[in-house]
């Protein structure tokens, strides 16, 4: 996913997005999407929920991004 980084994108933004994707990847391998909560993704990624919402509107948007 790191290769999707935009030119001039702040590395902290890329890092937090990658933490979210990695956490989601782990969780989606453990359970169904409907049983995954944003709080759980944020906890697994060691970020707060506000950071999650800076990147994705909800878990469904994250899932669409993940599937690409």
What number of structural domains do the residues give?
1
Shape: globular
CATH architecture: Orthogonal Bundle
Please report which band the strand proportion falls in: under 5%, 5-15%, 15-25%, 25-35%, 35-45% or over 45%.
under 5%
Give the helix tally.
4
The class by helix and strand makeup works out as mainly alpha
In short:
The protein is mainly α and 68 residues long.
How would you summarize the topology of this molecule?
Blueprint: H1 11-30, H2 38-45, H3 49-55, H4 59-67
Helix pairs in contact: 1-2
Describe what you observe in this structure.
The chain has one domain: Orthogonal Bundle (Arc Repressor Mutant, subunit A), CATH 1.10.10.60. It is built from 4 helices and no strands. The protein has helices at 11-30, 38-45, 49-55, 59-67. The chain is an all-alpha fold and 68 residues long. It is 65% helix and 0% strand. It starts with 10 loop residues before the first helix and ends with a helix. The relative contact order is 0.18.
């Amino acid at each position: 996913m790191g290769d999707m980084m935009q030119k001039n994108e702040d590395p902290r933004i890329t890092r937090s997005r990658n933490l979210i994707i990695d956490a989601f990847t782990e969780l989606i391998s453990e359970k169904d999407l409907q049983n995954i909560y944003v709080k759980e993704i944020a906890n697994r990624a060691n970020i707060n929920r506000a950071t999650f919402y800076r990147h994705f509107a909800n878990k469904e948007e994250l899932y669409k991004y993940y599937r690409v």
